[in-house]
Amino acid sequence: MLLKNTYNEFIKILAKPRSYLGIGALTLLVLIILFAMKADGKSFISFVTASFEQTLSFNGNILNGNLIAFIILQMLIVHIPLLVSLVTGDLISGEAAMGTIRMLATKPISRTQIVLSKFIAGAVYTLILTLWLGFLALIVGKWIFGSGDLIVLNSDGLVILKEQDILWRYGLSFGVAYLALLTISTLSICLSAFAENSIGPIVSTMAIIILFTIIGSLDVSVFDSIKPFLFTTHMASWRSFFEDPVPWSTIRNSVLILLAHNVVLILIALYKFNKKDITS
Amino acid sequence: MENTEIIKVQHLAKKFGSFQAVKDVSFTVNKGDVFGFLGPNGAGKSTTIRCMLSLIQANHGSIELFGKELSTHRNEVLSKIGSIIEKPDFYRYLSAEKNLEIFARISGKDVSRREIAEMLDFVGLNGRNKDKVSGFSHGMKQRLGIAQTLLHQPELIVLDEPTTGLDPQGIVEIRKLILRLKTEQNKTVILSSHQLSEIELISNRMVIINKGQSIIEGDVKELLNAQEMVVQMELDDLDKAVRILTDQFKEASYKCLNDRNIEIQIEKKHVPLVNQAFVEQGISVHSMEPKRKLEDFFMKIIQS
Fold first, then answer.
1. Which of A264, B47, B60, B171 could form a disulfide with B21 if both were Cys (CB 3.0 to 4.6 A apart)?
2. What are the residue ranges of helices labelled H in A50-166?
């Protein structure tokens, strides 16, 4: 029954125009970045490398597909949560608003299975969005800008990664980025279990992200103890794969915290939905 | 009609915060019944039905369906029920056929596309299979709702206020459809309504609930016939008729409407006797029109 209802959820997601709005917006954003980089990417790069040009000499194709993918990922990882929650935040509350939740809940399928099928469908939608981002950023980026070594500027300075040493890093970084987006998806579905309208969970998800991001960026000692446990702190953990050496323990810690968030949020949603009186 | 109990609700109670929506509702439904669930708005009908379908968890009491406790056999029991609660809501962005496919997939039984097409035909939506539900009228959605309830061949059909919001033609169509369920498919139907006339037309048994409590339960005809009714008669000698009523039918009350018409309130079983007495005393009875006021009956029951 879980698989059957998950299939139903896919049908519903595929039939909703807003599902394509997310993919369309993502495509448009990436294409704008690619166009901007193609038109004026060299001056953008020289702005970053200018401070190193007295001590280093940069040769070859610096503005290549690998760098473009990195820039795109860095820019969009902040905006994609909105596109994800636009679809996933509606999965339970949208049914309540439409009244179809009554029809679903009177069928011989447990409420746990109803919620789990929505989590699975939300996770698959998020995966499709992440893979599409990867395709646009990396494949299309390389097709337009070619390949080459990757120069990344981080807090310790410049990191130069050989062309042959990059693909696996992208593979794993997209995996961690997916986990971060999955947490957003799970959060919005969890909030959706508390709401009776579509817009509430979407706005609440974004409000939580903004709040946690502000707390994370405030240099105030009172928040130091909670910062490591906020999921927003680990949203950019994918970047760690582009450090040399790779800080595996930091990444492992981020993955565990994101996974814990997912498990707790799913359990909260299951508890809430199972106890809920459907009066709409 | 078999007399097998398929629903047994006992002392059901449900509170929302401090509001006691259902205080003490008990009733039984037998196999093959078209069971009327009658009560004024806010009486607790929908809450009781929602409890029966596990949409709401009751605070107290027991619900047995098909001889099994709902709380412990939820999925098994729900696979034998088709329902519409208040109004059928569908995925507006999907076609009628796709909507039925979605609900059929989780109905607990395999339903083929051919069966879906047949069901759409049964409810008179043939040819609208591929149309999006967003373009459907309320009546069409109601019929699609009935198709949805019947798809998996349930033994019990629960319809909560199925004619609400429908135009007169739609109401007649839904009534006919419900009667077809009973006659052609031998389904057990629970029909919730605040309209006595609807229950009287369709149901064979009923329960009346008010302020969260079941007040009376039984055979519709017996319950209605046991009550007094009002008969309006057109006679040629009103004075003589009044004398007969005063002498022979002391329990009757009457009101002279004009010099030829009288309204008599009397138990239904005494109506032919009154008519016979009038005729025997040489009064010409030109017309006799029953004016039983169901609403009055209903009010009388819930007020008592």
1. B47
2. 65-76, 80-88, 93-98, 100-105, 111-134, 141-145
d(CA A169, CA B175): 67
Contact criterion met (CB below 8 Å) for A147 and A66: yes
Q: Residues B9-30: what's their mean pLDDT?
A: 91
Residue in the block written with tokens 């446990």: A229
Q: Starting at the edge strand that comes first in sequence, how are the strands of the sheet with B205-210 ordered?
A: B68-69, B60-65, B5-16, B19-30, B213-219, B205-210, B34-38, B188-193, B156-160, B81-84
Q: If you compute the radius of gyration of chain A from its CA atoms, what whole number of angstroms results?
A: 21
Question: pLDDT digit string (tens) for A72-96?
Answer: 888 777 788 888 998 899 899 989 8
Interface of B with A in 126-145 (CB under 8 A): none
Closest CA to B148 of A99, A2, A19, A115: A99
The verdict on a CB contact (< 8 Å) between B93 and A8 is no
Peptide bond into B168 cis (omega under 30): no
Backbone phi and psi for residue B209, each to the nearest 5 degrees, phi listed first? -120, 145
pLDDT per position as a tens digit, B108-159:
788 888 888 888 888 888 888 889 999 988 888 888 988 888 888 898 999 8
CB A7 within 8 A of CB B105: yes
The pLDDT value recorded for residue B1 is 46
What are the structural domains of chain B?
Answer: 5-224 (3.40.50.300), 227-303 (3.30.70.340)
Burial of B202 (0-12, 13-18, 19+ CB in 10 A): buried
Q: Does A3 lie at the interface with B, CB-CB under 8 angstroms? A: no
| A235-276 pLDDT per residue, tens | 888 888 988 888 999 999 999 999 999 999 999 999 999 998
B53–chain A Cβ distance below 8 A for any pair: yes
Say yes or no for a CB contact (<8 Å) between B102 and A12. yes
Q: How far apart are the first and last CA of chain A?
A: 24
CA distances B3 to B6, B30, B154, B159, B200, Å, are: 9, 6, 18, 21, 20
Q: Which helix (H) or strand (E) holds B15?
A: strand B5-16
Q: Which of residues 64-123 of A touch B (CB under 8 A)?
A: 98-100, 102-110
What pTM was estimated for this model as a whole? 0.82
A230: Cβ–Cβ under 8 A, 6 or more apart, which residues?
Answer: A212, A215, A216
Measured between CB atoms, does A175 come within 8 Å of chain B?
no
pLDDT tens digit sequence for A23-78 = 898 899 889 988 988 888 777 777 666 666 666 666 667 788 888 888 888 877 77
Contact across the interface for B16 and A99, Cβ inside 8 Å = no
B81, B89, B93 ranked by CB distance to A102: nearest: B89
Which chain A residues touch B78 with a CB distance below 8 Å?
106-108
Q: With contacts defined as CB-CB under 8 Å, which chain A residues touch B88? A: 103
| pLDDT tens by residue, A158-171 | 788 888 888 999 99
